[in-house]
Amino acid sequence: MNEDGSFNVEIELEPEEQGEVETLLYGVPPEEVSFDDVATWGSVFGRVTGGEAGFTYAHFSNMLAGLGGRLTAEETRALWLRSCAHLFGMHEAEAADSALDVEQAYRVVRRVGLCAGALQKDLDRGEEAVPYHVLYMNGIRMGGRDPSGVSRTVTLEDAFAALGLSAVGSDAESLDDLANVEQRCGIRLPDALKSFFGQCGVCRAVRETHPNDPKLSRVDWLLWPENDRARPRRIPELGLNGDCAMLLVDEHDGDYAWHAVFCEGDLDARVYLRDEQEERWHLVAPTMAFFFWDLAQSGLIRYQEPRFAGMRPVRKNDIGLIYDRPIRRRDASKVEKERAARSLVEPVTDPEKPRRPWWKIW
After folding, report:
1. How many domains in the chain?
2. pLDDT by residue (tens digit) across 198-218?
3. Residue 201 in contact with residue 165, Cβ under 8 Å?
4. Residue 5 falls in which region: left (phi positive, over 0), alpha (psi -120 to 50) or beta
5. Cα dist. 64→99, 129, 359 in Å?
6. pTM attached to this predicted model
7. Which of 57, 125, 189, 206 is 20 to 30 A from 176, alpha carbon to alpha carbon?
8. Distance between CA 244 and CA 51 in Å, rounded?
9. DSSP annotation string for 136-190
């Protein structure tokens, strides 16, 4: 167990599956760990089969669909057939009509990367509740922790504390730029978003506290194509809880991107992960404050490993770790260069070229 109460978890895989998924996860919160999972499976088996004696392909398919999986019917069937063939030596016709007992069904569940604890949690969750999508990259979580596992509401002040920015004030110039963005685009940004991006040193702090080096993005506005280019088109058709989406964090390989999604007048924004390859959106955090706090927690606990000893000193508070960030002295010229580098508007070199802000709105 780590000092913040999380766990480092090693996943056992079949020999032929080695290298396909990450086998060591760092900073896994207690709510993601299932203890005595075999004992839990007995009651879960009865619920997923509806009290029937055997676990069939239909039960398997319904179970995956209930977890929010988006496998096609063909992909789900192929997964079932491969699992039955590998575990029990069944040929295709036999596997298609098989009804597995409790022990066999559990082996299939484990082989496809699930556990009884996760299934029980999903069954206990209300139908309207949306699970948060967890993503581990290089074994480190990049959002998706369930807020119910934290003892109290996480605030923006908690996020700043985790990033080591509690003693740092806001940057008046950045706040002015944000106000100009609102005026120019005719949209009101959430207060939490403006406070976060208006904090001195926030970009550097986010990167310092996570080994995956998450980068706050500097890109253009992108408006949905329509006749009126002055305002973004609304995005309910994407199935997101909000009217506007703004790019927050880019991943280096370009496979994933994290967006703030909000309605005009919201105090904070929901955070969604967009899978660029599959073009899917997943809810990962209820607020920006929780997302960046969680990002710092998962990164800081990785830095407490012996190989990183002393690189990111931390203290603890009532809900997690605080980066004991060293105070750096910067000369005036460096401050001006940093301000110019993170300016919300690119300098205009061609008078015919429009000025472009650095966020991307869907």
Report:
1. 2
2. 888 888 999 999 988 888 864
3. yes
4. left
5. 17, 17, 36
6. 0.70
7. 206
8. 45
9. EETTEE-S---GGGSSS---HHHHHHHTT-TT--B-HHHHHHHHHHHHHHT-PPP
